[in-house]
Structures are given as structure tokens and as C-alpha cells.
Amino acid sequence: MLLNLFGSERESMSAVDTAWLRMDRPTNLMVITGIMFFEGDLDYQRLGQVMQTRLLKFKRFKQRVVRSGTSASWEDDPDFDLANHLHRVALPGAASKPELETMVNDLISIPMDFSKPLWQFYVVENYCGGSVLVARIHHSIADGIALIQVLLSLTDKEEDATVESVPKKARFLAGEREPDDPFMRLYKPVAKVYAGMLKSYAKVLGTSYGLMTNPTKLAELTQTGMGLGQGLAKMATMPADPRTKFKGKLSTTKRIAWSESLPLPEVKHVGKALGCSINDVLLSCVAGALRAYLVERGEQVDGLTIRASVPVNLRPENKLDKLGNYFGLVFLPLPIGVANPIERVYEVKRRMEEIKGGYDAIITLGLLSVVGSLPNMVEQPAIEFFSTKSTAVMTNVPGPKEPIFMAGAKVQDLQFWVPQSGEIGMGVSILSYNDRVNFGVMTDKKLVPDPQTIIARFGSEFEKLVLATLMHTLDGPPDPELAELHLAMLRMQSTP
């Protein structure tokens, strides 16, 4: 700890958090954006009291970033004022979805003010008969898993909970996730070896940037080290993703869109009928929507595969309630070239199984730790190198299974958008809440000016999969639940 001019302490930022801090650039701001939709009016004064009591107990939300050479530190903001971070706004015109989209689109392209703590909340008081809370939080403060914990700490399970009441901690442990969640299938094998391996092979990871140009030097590693070495060599030799409408030179303007939610029980039912996981189904719908967008724009998609960088939680059990970034990345090849919905689901499942138990997540976390402690002139080429390997960042976060309340107002729905790094121009976010599944897409305006056309296809792709699954199971006894689901979707479509 060091003292600043005001006599308060400075805390060194971790190397990984520093890496995320320095990824911030005009074409890709490292800011996580989320929206909470409320059924009624959100009491602005009461929300302020909740934030004073529950949010500001996390010291990061009262601290600003100070940079010095290759490092960065946290220090208390001597002029901290909640009013600089909690704002009350009103939408113009009809104050409906188009107006809210315009507001969020304007916000996501505005850099954070680094003279203050790196977060902003906006209360929209006139949205479709209710209220909306828009949150923007810089990635250097924490990763998505930790930030969900923070936001949930502001909520209650009962409408009449007092401001001073302390909510029960919501912790995303491995056993609490869906048993067929492939993101947890990735988490479990790497988490077992994470703590010891990352420390034991720090020297390997510390020299990994130089090894990128000469992977054969890794042959001297031990059996376990060979796993890391082979994974690192695989990344080093992985070809760049193909150029499509989704990949190219970025602008400084982003666009967001969000979907109507899908019923989670119905997604589960389709997955069960096919012998696949929930996320096999969801990721197949994502691949189908991206495929349809490219086809409409005349791109050749037969046999096309594009990769998504998928965050994998590596947070140790003793740091589940701590801020900061504790995740690595794996590269998931999306089968855009597969037209048949059933075949696409099974291909997604097969590819997820191929990367299960690999070392990619540990390696990328180690590399972030390394480059975050090196000069920025070293980090930026490394980030550029890895960003050529992916077309999108894709993340899946499980939200509360039951309705929650904030400052006495019921949360109707949740949405969020994941930032992209380097030259990646698309982010796809999947979030479950109260037995519903939501999709959010963020794109670069220069590459994809109309993300709404992608989002609109998630529902139709799921409907195609339902119909295809129903036909796929006709060899055996008819599935009444699946048939009823298909009829319900057709009725919903025919309703004006």
C-alpha cells in the first residue's frame, strides 16, 4: 500500500485487472452494460439509500484508478458523491423500446470518466408504464460473475424488505448450476487443476508470449506442463477467423439489441428430447441466427465456421464474493455452415465436448496476468493477436430462478451486453431469469448497423428447432408436450 497526496492508501491493481483496464480503446470500451426492467415505479430516493447501504460497502465503487508507468492502482476518490453516479433521466416521445434503445446506444459509445470511480447508473422513470435501471460498470472492477453478485446484493426476495436488511448471499457454485450447463462442464475439469497448475507453471506462462513464435521450445515441459504447452502451441498456430460481415475494421460507435425472452422450461424440453444440454440448444439458435443474417446479405456460408471467445469461470471458492477478474477464455467454433437445425445442435454438442477439459482457459488467464504486468506496447500486440482468432465474444450467465425486488419494485426482466476486446466486433449475451432466457447482441455499427435483425431470428430459429425436433421424434411415440409447444408458438405467431 502507498499513500497519495491526500494521505489515503493506494492499492495496487492486479495484473489481470490491469490487462482489462488497458484493453479499453475508443473502438472497444471495456464496459459491461446491463438493464433491469421494473413492473412499476422505481423509488429513486429509496434506491439511493439501498446503494449507500449495500453497493458502497464494496470499496471499489468509491475508488478511482491511478496509472503509473506499467502499473495501476486503486485509490479513494476524495470528492466521491453518489449523485455523480446515480442519475434520473426521462425518455422522449413514446418512451418505449425504440427510445430506450437509442438512449443505450448513445451511452455505450461514451468512455468512462477516469477521474471518478468507473461506474454509472441511470434510472429511467417513464418506460412502458414502469421504470428501467441502466447500469454501466468497467470491466477492470470485476468480471461478469462477480458483478452479478454485486447487483443481486442490491435486491431482495420480498417486496417489503427494508433498506437495512442484509440479503442472503447469492453465490454461483458449481453444484447450483444447471447439471447440463456446458459452461460448468468446462469449469469443473479446469477448476480442479487451476490453483496448483497456474502457480507451478508460472514460468511457462511468463514466457508464453515469446513462445508464440517458437512453440517447439515447449517440448521440454513435464507431462502436465505438456498439456499447457500443447494448448499454447494450438493457440499460437490457430488460424485467424474468416472475414465475414461480422469481422473487419471497427468504428467508435456500437449498436445493441435485445430479444423477447424464451421460456426456459420449453428450451429444457427440446434439449431433453434431443439428448442435448440447454446450452447446446441455445448456442445452436445463435449459430442459426448468425447464419441467416449472412445468407440474407449474400455471403457464402456452406461449411463456414466462426469462433466465439467464451469466458470460463476460474474463480477460487474463497474469492466467490470478491471483486476482480478471475476467468479465462476458450474458443468455441460455431457451425454456421450447418443448415439443418437438428444437425446443428448435435454439431454444437460435439464441439463443446472437444474443448471440455482443455487448458485454454488457464492459459488465457495466465497470459492476461503476464501481459498485464508488462508494458502496454507488449500487451496491445498480444491482444490483437488473440482477437484475430474470434469473431464474437459469447457469454452465458444464470440469473435468479425466482422473481426479485429492488427498492420495493419487482424486477420484470434483465438484459446485459458483454464488451469485446481488440478487433472483435460482436458480443452475444445469454441471461436466464425467472424461468425465461434472454439474448442480447452488441455490434459495431460499421460492420452490423442492424443487430435487431439478428436478435429477431433467435425466436424463429428456436421455432424451427421445435418443429424439426417434433419431426425427428416421429419414429417413436409422438411427444405431446413438444407438439403442444409447437402449436402454442404457431398460435402466438398468428395473433395480431
TrEMBL record:
GO annotations of cellular component type = plasma membrane
- Give every O-acyltransferase WSD1-like N-terminal domain span: 13-281
GO BP, one annotated term: glycerol metabolic process
At the top of the EC hierarchy, this enzyme's class is: transferase
The UniProt GO MF terms for this protein read: diacylglycerol O-acyltransferase activity
Q: Which UniProt keywords apply?
A: Acyltransferase, Glycerol metabolism, Lipid biosynthesis, Lipid metabolism, Transferase
Which reaction does this enzyme catalyse, per its entry? an acyl-CoA + a 1,2-diacyl-sn-glycerol = a triacyl-sn-glycerol + CoA
Family (UniProt) = Belongs to the long-chain O-acyltransferase family.
The molecule here is called diacylglycerol O-acyltransferase
Taxonomic lineage per UniProt?
Bacteria, Pseudomonadati, Pseudomonadota, Betaproteobacteria, Neisseriales
